[in-house]
Amino acid sequence: MSDSSIFIEKYRPQNFEEFVGQDIIVNRIKSFVENKNIPHLIFAGSPGTGKTTLSLIIARSLFGNNWRDNFLELNSSDDRGINVVRETIKDFARTKPILNTPYKIILLDESDALTREAQHALRRTMENYSNTCRFILSCNYSSKLIDPIISRCAIFRFKPLEKAEMFIILKRILKQESIKVDDNSLELIYNASNGDVRKAENLLQSSASISKNITEDVIKEIINEVNPKSIKNILEIAILGDFIKARSKLLDLMLREGVSGVDIIKSIQSEIINLNIDDKVKMQLIDKCGDIEFRLVEGSDEFVQIEALLANFVRK
Questions:
Q1: What is the chain's mean pLDDT, rounded?
Q2: Is CATH 1.20.272.10 the right assignment for the domain spanning 228-314?
């Protein structure tokens, strides 16, 4: 199989009929395209749910084979300052569309990464060149966009794909690549992806590089998730008051498996519900997990923070 980016592009849907999931959004966008009049759009939602793909389908449907001449794609996380709005975006927006098309389209991927100054400059550009250009702002969190931009756009919120929708996409790829995967393995891929198609495709490709007959063991090797039973055992030892033994087992697990502190926190948080302790104590421990995860994200030493969390289980 080809490398990750080429593989994902190879199976990216090219038209509305191939697009799977987000049915309500697709139907509304399709009606805009059929009327050849789309508003400024905000596509908000978690990664791998089809925001960029649907934007490309809009461009292909409106402009045909010449879509690249009237379509500009920028990643705002790379060029997030005001200069990209004043120069690149403005220069593209101010020129007339090619081949008598009604307008051009600019896709700003990860637009919630734009600085506030850049967003205010973008708002003026959207106002001044609305006759010649339409904007599609793709983001994870629309709340990070300023209100003047939000008020100028139609907002569409993308949800993670359902299991049946994900299976349609994966089975289509499996057939093309002549790969065998049982339903249990597909289930593992879906659970690990959390509805993110891009992540699911990467997991599938990584697994296929090991074997053309993908089993649950192959998937687990790629995912490299923490064993829930191991985490539960460690927490139960801590609850019984043996901090040293619980600490030793947990650090050994982190070092042996190469698991990050954040992944350990998420596994612990999931297993707290299954512990035989008072519900009020469970709430306090889950709250503590949130504090520790924040500290890790801010750059604290993961071993010290994990030990601190474990101490809370001992003195629950």
A1: 86
A2: yes
